[in-house]
Amino acid sequence: MSNTPHELSADFPELADKISALKTSNAHFARQMEEYHELNREVHRAETDVEPMDDLAQAELRKKRMALKDALYQMLIATA
Q: What is the model's pTM?
């Protein structure tokens, strides 16, 4: 388990410009990005015991984060 936040632009540096452009031009993408960042922060706080939670709850949050990350990635590559 990593205690490093999973920022989308750090995970996909080659798509950083596209992430920035879509955040300003696509309201759905922007909402999904905000939801991703909220989940990401929640996972990070749990992993670092700032806001502890049981392992099952952490696993569920990670699954939601990964599904959202996959959806965001699909939007990014669809606009290539």
A: 0.85
